[in-house]
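Most newcomers find our protein records easier to grasp once they have seen one. A record pairs a protein's sequence with a compact description of its fold. An example says more than a description, so a record of this kind follows:
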Amino acid sequence: MTAPSVFFSYSHADEAMRDQIEKQLSTLKRQRVIETWHDRHIRPGEEFAQAIDDHINRDRIILLLVSPDFIASDYCYEIEMQRAIERHEAGEATVIPVILRVCDWHSTPFGKLQAVPRDGKAIKQWPDIDEAMLQVAKAVRQAAERWQAPRDTASAGSTAELATPATPAPAAAGPRSSNLRLAKNFTQRDKDRFKDEAFEYIAKFIENSLAELTDRNSGYEGVFKRIDANRLFATIYHDGKDVARATYFTGGGSFGDGINYVQGEATGSNTTNETLTVCADDQSVFLRSFGMANFGADREQKLSPQGASEYFWELLVGHLQR
């Protein structure tokens, strides 16, 4: 199987940091997990714009190296980034924003995506820059493994990945429209697979978040218990006293088959404090909240597995943060 290629979208002002990140990816390249490409690979005599266009339309993983210079660059922002987001939303690529330097990126089109390093903290702000760049390498490895896995067992990444074709059509040479999106149909099998993969993503997210909460907050301990394939318990203790308990499970609930949240430890499946149901439009499969936890305020949101995880985590820890 051909290793997925990683495309670097970056400002030349950040070329040195791009080189450092590429060094962190050396192990992945030696193991043939990925290939990498950026504009410094363009050969003499090769058409610059066409070479970039070929890769931005073909490569499976796109790293947006975000900085004030990246956002200020018309080419990076208006051409490369916009096309990258289109392909991500169509399930043709995985876009990973890599925050190099502090800037106003949260309100950009890629601000909705999970960024690296952790918590979107700029690499330049980390006391150990190598640690921050290692997190980038790990994110790239996870994305590459998703692209290399069989489609029926691939881990959940973005909601659109379920509809990704095995091999993308080659990009047409010369001028073309960027308005190429067509309506898609999703079967019940697609929706069931998405639900199962989303629950696995949520389970890992809750487990990792509880561990990180324990590490960062003295006196607090997060405990994760996986009961079976369809149920897990999450508990937070403060000085030995339980201050938050929740159950997450699939199936049952008050509103049919979905992913459910219940306060406390529940072994039954006939009640819920919040339910996320699997829905689809003409482009993607996603999760939608019934809004029981927030009086219907969240019902219109289309949640990816990442967004659903953040939503469920907030239900668990929100009262501890106020």
